[in-house]
Amino acid sequence: xxxxxxxxxxxxxxxxxxxxxxxxxxxxxxxxxxxxxxxxxxxxxxxxxxxxxxxxxxxxxxxxxxxxxxxxxxxxxxxxxxxxxxxxxxxxxxxxxxxxxxxxxxxxxxxxxxxxxxxxxxxxxxxxxxxxxxxxxxxxxxxxxxxxxxxxxxxxxxxxxxxxxxxxxxxxxxxxxxxxxxxxxxxxxxxxxxxxxxxxxxxxxxxxxxxxxxxxxxxxxxxxxxxxxxxxxxxxxxxxxxxxxxxxxxxxxxxxxxxxxxxxxxxxxxxxxxxxxxxxxxxxxxxxxxxxxxxxxxxxxxxxxxxxxxxxxxxxxxxxxxxxxxxxxxxxxxxxxxxxxxxxxxxxxxxxxxxxxxxxxxxxxxxxxxxxxxxxxxxxxxxxxxxxxxxxxxxxxxxxxxxxxxxxxxxxxxxxxxxxxxxxxxxxxxxxxxxxxxxxxxxxxxxxxxxxxxxxxxxxxxxxxxxxxxxxxxxxxxxxxxxxxxxxxxxxxxxxxxxxxxxxxxxxxxxxxxxxxxxxxxxxxxxxxxxxxxxxxxxxxxxxxxxxxxxxxxxxxxxxxxxxxxxxxxxxxxxxxxxxxxxxxxxxxxxxxxxxxxxxxxxxxxxxxxxxxxxxxxxxxxxxxxxxxxxxxxxxxxxxxxxxxxxxxxxxxxxxxxxxxxxxxxxxxxxxxxxxxxxxxxxxxxxx
Length: 688
Known about the structure:
- By secondary structure, the chain is of the alpha+beta class.
- Helix content is 51%, strand content 16%.
- Strands 8-9-10-5-11-12 form a six-stranded mixed sheet, sandwiched between helices. The chain has a five-stranded antiparallel sheet with strand order 15-19-16-17-18, with no helix packed on it. A four-stranded antiparallel sheet has the order 4-3-6-7, with helices on one face.
- Strand 17 and strand 18 form a beta hairpin.
- The longest helix has 32 residues, at 166-197.
- The protein is elongated.
- The protein starts with a helix and ends with a strand.
- Mean pLDDT is 78; it is low at 96-114 and 368-373.
């Protein structure tokens, strides 16, 4: 879009104002709402750095309730804040749904940034993040004119300002965090199941209701629990359990936000298969949803644990008892009292707390890594129509990170239309398309992080090889130096190193295919969509590229959907194979399973299993590899035709009742001869 504006005479600043900025407005507004929400509900930072002269709604709720014991004023302020938070959450959610996906979600090395930007980001990160952390660590070891562990050793002694030693507060925080995490995981998992599988109205209420604690201040939550749980049998104000309950309430939204996308990505057919095998709906959830969602559950648990460790506002209302003291509360009380020794202890306590939270964050990141097998792209109930004519009907499909899915079917079955719908080039009549749990159905094609490779390559004839490959990078305003580096890297990967200045009109079919592949991979797409890219090549070249294509995709970590009408090609390329016919996706399974156990007669015929035998017990399909010539065989047939295929023979036969058969045999019988065949029952497919 930006390039089109420049071609039409727009200057860079005009292009930004007229084209780039309007596309960024929803994202900017959504980010601004989130930042405003965070600042609006900030408590600890304002209380410590602002002091009494810089009061906010958040700190005033605390002061009115704790210092002045004016619960009515505190309740009014809390209600006002809750209304504002609710409005901001609704606004942010709506803006988030409108926001286009502009990022590639790829590794940093796969979408090169300008060196100046990299250096600038590094400097800003070091100054804003590394600087305060470095000073904090240095001050924790500083003891007058030297360095030592005095402040850390003093944490084991009880300060006058604390009801227990700081080490006790640390232990309490860890115990509270473990218990709160257990509560948050249990409640979050059950709530996620309601959000994903519950009735629409109930699911929406749960979804919005569980978002509120994420935006509502911890002070409001703590104050609300203090005034709500004040009468028997729920008078928990002095109970040990009120702290982990409050922490769990803050942590539940994190569990839900990590679990819901994972649960939504589970193929409904898995539950159907479990039901057929005798599992009740509850048992199916336990046997399928919980194991599949375990990684997301661990990530949510890590978030809940980290939030509980650092939680301050919700527990600041509780009495000063040793069993209630947490590390953040102890830290606040140490910092609130003048004195170098107490301040040094506060620094040491901060460092220990920071290390514990960092450990929880590492657990979160380890839970997020290793994307193999995790559903990235999900289609649910996708339908495409051309007028009143259905082209694709009810397509459900999942694509894992790094997976190559082969989409197999005869011409006109809708597989290319489905590919174009995923790319955003065909509007959906029904259904949704989601990426990493985010609905992208309404996102325009140019901002979807997908690449599309056509059968005829569609190389720009007026540009050389290097200019073709770098085209997508230029459209994304990648620095020229980074573009050259990326082009060289990809051409070397596809075996065309040094071809940058070659005219595309001088390339062979295989070379043009490799250039098209490099061009599609250059912007680092999350998913590469391949529309019969090998169909126009000769057999030798196609076989060679079938071996090279998966290696290139593995090297770049790119997931792909490969459309083809050739089942040999689909089985050679695909980690899984999806079979389409008349606009419907009939089966998606590993190649060996599709070949050995087609789920329907339609799939069997597409795979070339043409030996259909009807009988009183149902329909049998004899696979093309099910027969061997055996004089003691039960089936007698006459040989009509023999086609030599190099290592075996495609043999067509006819039985006495006129039934046509076709098998792949290692030996070649004579045309016109009568032979007996033995059918391997393990290679017979039966349909009721």
